[in-house]
């Protein structure tokens, strides 16, 4: 419990307390709860140390802000660094707005509360996975520029402020309009209309000259970049509400100062503590364990930690489509798709095995579909998805890795070299680029690399046309082209099981003989037994045999489910855990 | 670092010092290498126009520093020292090398020096200078050699005589619509058109700096106007009207297949904004595409294949080169006659382009279909129209050659080639003295010669222009905000 004593003026201790609270709350929340945001954002961009990369950000106002944000985002590779970066920026926002408050309304009892609102709303915004650090940097820089504006109001300072507005616009883009709004509100209260009018004239000239002479950008780009897209938020108006809050911030602080003339420390401290309590409550309420699990799975998936993905999903049984897709892909990578896929939820049928191409879905989400093609050995199609992603989103670690790998597998070394050159110019992926670079000069390393050589074996032996909207068709084409592709066969059988087509599973059993597989995968055995039980005798399986263990389990399953209702089966009551992880249970419950 | 040609005597002295080890400590042995150095781009033995931009290159040999002594047959000499192997010619010195040197040569003597000061002298690399200048400007579409998605597409113009480059159209200003291919009326920068696909779609006609947006698809047309060809008089544009599908290959040798399901030819009257069909008398249904006029405008060349259906194997679609006589006064066409029977050799023709003198026609020959840019085997062929004889051109490589165009004087061919990496097209220029005198092509020089090595974007449909396009991205943006003028339909 914080002890509060009545003091005539706001004290340093309270301000420090506020700053410590902002730092602690944001740091701890990001470190312990939503660190997946770091993983997500770090994996959606690639900061490249090259003039070409930097040059792109110079071509539009606000680009430098995004560039600075991207530079900082590199630190997100580590959760501690990431949390510290976010916490420092938010704390700096609070510090700057405290200074503004002190300038505008010294001894204001609501000063701490308003400054904490400023940083807490940005903290809340930052918990959206698409809200990036440059957005908070924008608010921070705007706050600093506003502070400079109000700190010295002599003629020369005013001229400097006016003449630097175009530069401020170039650096921050949209935030210049936020500054314009703040400065206007402030000057209305100060009754300094000449400066306001001059500022608006400079702003109007700035945007007109920018549009007509300098930047090849549409009006929308000049007005709203680099704000996050409104569509990223469940309430698209959130961004505009926040902007309005900051625009009217000077009014809030000036008017609140007029409410109560003398400083009341209790009011001051309790009000800002209330903001923190409310923020903490919202943060905890908004926290989604499911989302956190999906990104943890994705992190393991990107690290190719297949066993980690499998065990995690089997433990937490996440119902999210992406989680199930990663689980199935990880199983396929480990050659266990038809042995283990029913050990975790399968709620989406074949959708959780493959994601069909759709130009209506944002590449950001669609991109995950690439792994099906890469896993199955349709390297050209995997390359296409990675390339489409690069075209629409720019380079990010996953698409560039896949571009390099697919080109190496296909023997397109000169193209691979281009991407490797890019990867070499990054901070965290230099070493990986070095590994790929060594493959360029020594293709034997490609043949000896377990991941790449395996893909090369799975590739089609002859050409066919990819069916982009119906990925299942491609499995058949691939199997025709390369009958030895066990992974394609497993995918085919998995799809048939998910579609509950046991008869077709049985009809395809003989294809197992075309592969190196000398045993029937567990779930396929289960499908075969079910078929035998429901429809009749199995075809000749030559050397393949159904194991006694599966036969025994089937017998147990029949016995257990014979005397219980369908609802009880669905609820899983009275069913042994091992029997819930079977194709029979999937058939009964889906 | 450049030591320029202020005084030839001093330059020779410096070069002599370099050779004798005067510049470096160490034993200073000079060994003569009995081959040319590897340079990027490969400019060895190319024929260049007397008004081309500096042919900067980088040396792909081991060495801590390099020295290039450049000698021209007009007696000019420059010396360039480089620490990173990149040889950049100063513009003024380069111009002096070219001035009055038509028909002559430029030889570059290269020396590499290693860490210990040992020097290697290579056989000189030579450029041949043609008598004929090249058109001063080039335009191209710059985009990712992608599949379905696009974000950044620009049409840029570049001065062939320097490195000056600027945007003509930028899809950032066109609501990120797709910018399709552009087409000029006889290399005229004041008269060209471009299709835009998307929310501000239409065909944009640029005349001087005035840009108008038109909707050429009339209700009578099943499909939109696609591949254009300006009639030399500038009054008409022939278009193919195509239904195009795109598919992707599973095999590593191929990427994309772009196929027509149906296509026919139409002619657009630019002044009257009226579209008219090119009559088809044949009972057999054909797909007709890639129109091209002869320089006098009395022949319409195009590619023609038997019409297929959805179930047809794309590999079976083969296009012949065909032409029809055109009578402008009566707006009537003659009967189709086959100019090059590609089907008989199990090949397919695309992109016919007639030389300005009307004697030659260059086309792309490939295995099937009409969209050769994704066909590794696509090569340029030169057809002597009067002799009816076509031959594979010496300018080809193992990768795709396509999208060729002639300079206005007919002495230079500009084409895209994917020879550097198999994926990204680069603009190559080749001297065309006559049918049997074609120079080794060179890639359009860049200020940074390593640009092509790291650039992932592709140079699409490079075209020569006799000057700079006066219209700019903002003109197109303004035009996009106006309603498209709808074309009418008339059957002659």
**Rg of chain B, please?**
25 Å
Number of strands of chain A: 1
| Tally of helical runs of chain A | 34
Taking all Cα atoms into account, the compactness measure Rg of chain A is: 30 Å
In whole angstroms, how far apart are the ends of chain A? 53 Å
In one word, what is the shape of chain A? elongated
Looking at how many chains there are and whether they match, the oligomeric state comes to: heterodimer
Q: Which structural class should the secondary elements of chain A be placed in?
A: mainly alpha
Task: Give me the count of strands of chain B.
Answer: 39
* Assigned CATH class of the largest domain in chain B: Mainly Beta
Overall number of structural domains of chain B: 2
Terminal-residue CA separation of chain B? 66 Å
CATH overall fold name of the largest domain in chain B:
Neuraminidase
Helices and strands, with pairings:
The complex is a heterodimer of chains A (590) and B (492).
Chain A (H helix, E strand, L loop, with lengths): L11 H22 L2 H7 L8 H8 L4 H11 L5 H26 L6 H16 L6 H19 L3 H18 L2 H16 L2 H22 L4 H6 L13 H10 L1 H11 L5 H22 L2 H14 L3 H11 L4 H13 L3 H4 L22 H4 L3 H7 L2 H15 L3 H13 L3 H12 L5 H12 L2 H5 L1 H9 L6 E2 L4 H11 L4 H13 L3 H6 L14 H13 L13 H15 L3 H6 L5 H4 L2 H7 L1
Helix pairs in contact in A: 1-5, 1-6, 1-14, 2-15, 3-4, 4-7, 5-6, 5-7, 6-14, 7-8, 7-9, 8-10, 9-10, 9-12, 9-13, 15-16, 15-17, 16-17, 20-21, 21-22, 22-23, 22-26, 23-24, 27-28
Chain B lengths: L1 E2 L4 H13 L9 E3 L6 E2 L6 E2 L8 E3 L5 E8 L4 E6 L3 E2 L3 H8 L6 E9 L5 E3 L3 E5 L7 E7 L10 E6 L5 E6 L7 E8 L2 E10 L4 E6 L2 E6 L9 E6 L5 E14 L6 E14 L4 E4 L8 E8 L5 E8 L13 E8 L4 E2 L3 E4 L7 E7 L5 E7 L12 E6 L4 E4 L8 E6 L5 E6 L8 E9 L2 E2 L3 E2 L7 H4 L3 E8 L7 H8 L4 E2 L1 E2 L3
Parallel strand pairs in B: 2-10, 4-11, 18-38, 22-39
Antiparallel strand pairs in B: 1-7, 3-5, 5-8, 6-7, 6-9, 9-10, 9-11, 12-13, 12-37, 13-14, 15-16, 16-17, 17-18, 19-20, 20-21, 21-22, 23-24, 24-25, 25-26, 25-27, 28-29, 29-30, 30-31, 32-33, 33-34, 34-35, 34-36
């Amino acid at each position: 419990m914080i002890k509060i004593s009545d003091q005539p003026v706001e004290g340093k201790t309270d301000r420090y307390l506020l700053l410590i609270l902002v730092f602690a709350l944001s740091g701890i929340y990001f470190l312990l709860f939503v660190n997946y945001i770091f993983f997500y954002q770090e994996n959606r961009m690639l900061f490249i140390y090259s003039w070409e990369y930097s040059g792109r950000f110079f071509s539009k106002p606000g680009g430098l802000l995004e560039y600075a944000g991207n530079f900082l985002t590199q630190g997100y590779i580590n959760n501690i660094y990431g949390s510290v970066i976010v916490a420092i920026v938010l704390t700096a926002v609070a510090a700057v707005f405290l200074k503004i408050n002190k300038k505008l309304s010294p001894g204001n009892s609501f000063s701490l509360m308003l400054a904490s609102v400023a940083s807490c709303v940005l903290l809340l915004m930052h918990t959206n996975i698409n809200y990036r650090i440059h957005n908070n940097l924008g608010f921070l820089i705007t706050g600093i520029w506003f502070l400079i504006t109000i700190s010295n109001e002599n003629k020369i300072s005013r001229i400097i402020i006016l003449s630097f507005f175009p530069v401020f616009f170039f650096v921050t883009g949209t935030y210049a309009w936020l500054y314009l709004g703040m400065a206007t509100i402030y000057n209305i209260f100060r009754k300094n209309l000449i400066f306001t009018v001059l500022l608006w004239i400079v702003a109007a000239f700035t945007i007109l000259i920018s549009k007509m002479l300098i930047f090849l950008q549409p009006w929308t780009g000049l007005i709203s970049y680099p704000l996050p897209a409104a569509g990223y938020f469940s309430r698209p108006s959130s961004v505009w509400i926040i902007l309005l809050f900051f625009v009217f911030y000077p009014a809030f602080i000036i008017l609140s100062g007029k409410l109560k003339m003398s400083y009341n420390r209790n009011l001051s401290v309790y009000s800002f503590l209330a903001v923190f309590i409310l923020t903490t409550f919202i943060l905890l309420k908004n926290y989604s364990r499911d989302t956190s699990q999906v990104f943890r799975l994705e992190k393991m998936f990107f690290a190719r930690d297949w066993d980690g993905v499998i065990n995690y999903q089997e433990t937490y049984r996440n119902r999210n489509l992406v989680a199930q897709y990663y689980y199935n892909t990880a199983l396929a990578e480990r050659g266990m798709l038809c042995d283990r896929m029913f050990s975790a939820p399968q709620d989406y049928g074949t959708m959780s095995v493959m994601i069909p191409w759709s130009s209506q879905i944002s590449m950001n989400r669609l991109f995950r579909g690439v792994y099906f093609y890469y896993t199955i050995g349709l390297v050209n199609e995997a390359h296409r998805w990675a390339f489409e992603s690069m075209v629409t989103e720019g380079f990010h670690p996953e698409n560039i890795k896949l571009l390099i790998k697919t080109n190496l597998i296909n023997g397109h070394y000169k193209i691979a070299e281009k991407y490797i050159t890019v990867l070499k110019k990054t901070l965290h992926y230099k070493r990986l680029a070095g590994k790929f670079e060594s493959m360029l000069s020594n293709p034997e390393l490609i043949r000896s690399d377990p991941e790449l050589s395996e893909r090369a074996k799975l590739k089609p032996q002859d050409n066919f046309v990819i069916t982009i909207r119906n990925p299942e068709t491609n499995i058949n084409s691939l199997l025709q082209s390369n009958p030895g592709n066990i992974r394609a066969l497993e995918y085919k059988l998995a799809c048939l099981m998910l579609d509950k087509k046991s008869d077709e599973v049985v009809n395809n059993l003989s294809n197992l003989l075309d592969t190196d597989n000398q045993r029937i995968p567990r779930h396929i055995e289960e499908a075969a037994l079910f078929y035998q039980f429901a429809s009749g005798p199995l075809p000749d399986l030559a050397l393949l045999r159904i194991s006694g263990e599966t036969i025994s389990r089937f017998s147990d399953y029949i016995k257990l489910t014979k005397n219980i209702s369908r609802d009880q089966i669905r609820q899983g009551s009275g069913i042994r855990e091992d029997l819930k992880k079977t194709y029979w249970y999937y058939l009964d419950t889906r | 670092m450049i030591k320029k040609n202020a005084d030839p005597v001093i330059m020779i002295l410096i070069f002599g010092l370099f050779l004798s080890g005067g510049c470096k400590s160490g034993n200073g042995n000079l060994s003569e290498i009995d081959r040319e150095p590897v340079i990027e781009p490969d400019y060895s033995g190319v024929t260049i126009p007397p008004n081309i931009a500096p042919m900067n290159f980088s040396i792909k040999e081991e060495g801590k520093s390099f020295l290039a002594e450049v000698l021209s047959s007009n007696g000019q000499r420059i010396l360039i020292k480089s620490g990173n192997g990149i040889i950049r010619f100063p513009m003024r010195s380069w111009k002096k090398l070219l001035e009055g040197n038509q028909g002559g040569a430029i030889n570059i003597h290269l020396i590499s020096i290693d860490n210990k000061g040992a020097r290697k002298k290579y056989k000189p690399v030579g450029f041949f200078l043609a008598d004929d200048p090249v058109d001063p400007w080039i335009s191209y579409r710059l985009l990712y050699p992608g599949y379905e998605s696009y974000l950044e597409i620009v049409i840029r113009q570049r001065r062939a005589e320097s490195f000056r480059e600027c945007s003509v159209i930028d899809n950032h200003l066109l609501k990120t619509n797709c910018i399709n291919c552009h087409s000029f009326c006889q290399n005229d920068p004041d008269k060209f058109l471009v299709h835009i696909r998307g929310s501000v779609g239409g065909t944009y006609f640029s005349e001087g700096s005035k840009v108008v947006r038109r909707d050429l698809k009339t209700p009578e047309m099943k499909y939109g106007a696609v591949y254009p060809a300006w009639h030399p008089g500038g009054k008409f544009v022939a278009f193919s009207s195509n239904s195009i599908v795109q598919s992707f290959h599973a095999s590593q040798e191929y990427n994309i297949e772009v196929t027509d399901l149906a296509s026919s030819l139409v002619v657009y009257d630019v002044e009257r904004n009226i579209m008219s069909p090119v009559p088809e008398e044949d009972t057999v249904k054909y797909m007709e595409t890639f129109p091209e006029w002869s320089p006098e405008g009395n022949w319409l060349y195009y590619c023609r294949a038997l019409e297929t259906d959805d179930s047809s194997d794309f590999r079976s679609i083969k296009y012949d080169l065909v032409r029809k006589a055109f009578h402008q006064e009566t707006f009537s066409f003659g009967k189709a006659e086959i100019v090059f029977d590609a089907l008989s050799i199990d090949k397919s023709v695309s992109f016919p382009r007639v030389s300005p003198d009307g004697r030659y026609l260059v086309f792309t020959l490939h295995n099937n279909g009409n969209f050769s840019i994704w066909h590794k085997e696509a090569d340029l062929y030169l057809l002597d129209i009067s002799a009816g004889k076509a031959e594979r051109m010496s300018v080809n490589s193992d990768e795709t050659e396509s999208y060729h165009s002639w300079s206005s004087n007919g002495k230079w061919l500009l084409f895209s080639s994917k020879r550097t990496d198999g994926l990204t097209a680069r603009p190559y220029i080749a001297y065309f003295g006559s049918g049997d005198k074609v120079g080794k092509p060179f890639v359009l020089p860049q200020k940074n010669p390593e640009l092509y090595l790291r650039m992932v974007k592709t140079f699409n449909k490079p075209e020569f222009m006799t000057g700079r396009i006066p219209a700019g991205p903002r003109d197109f943006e303004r035009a996009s905000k106006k309603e498209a003028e709808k074309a009418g339909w008339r059957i002659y």
